[in-house]
Design goal:
Blueprint lengths: L1 H10 L19 E3 L2 E7 L5 E7 L1 H14 L9 H19 L5 H22 L13 H6 L15
Antiparallel strand pairs: 1-2, 2-3
Helix pairs in contact: 2-3, 2-4
Length: 158
Amino acid sequence: MYSRLKNLVAEKGGKLNEKKTRTVDFEKESLEFLGFRLAWRKARSGRHYPHCERSPKSCGKLREAIREETTRSTMWKEPDEVIARVNRRVRGWIGYFHYANSSRVFDKMQWQMRERMRRWLWKKHAKTQAHYGDAYSNERLHDHYGLVNFPMHTKSQT
């Protein structure tokens, strides 16, 4: 299969990068490609299927991007500006990764984004009372501040 692929790419005028190309037994080992993790899984019915989800590395990159926008060095910025920048990054990530099997990962990423924004707002407004409370509820983050909501269904279902 590898030699056939190499010949096909050569016919088209390209060349496989030997350092990045490897052969994988998909039934035994998962692989990461373009930000997705692909693995062969067994369903409850006993049938096997190719499972596709966001790779942990791509989720980590989104968390890092949100962290960069909400560091202590951004406390001087207006919340609207910071949230607009976070929303831009999150919308781009959602647009790319809104594919099958996304609800579980999207739910976790949304929770992490909300917690980060709550902490940033709490520190920015120099709150001294108990953490968060109603001042930074999920509804307030989305309705008042305009934080983006992650879709919880695949595109084929909506």
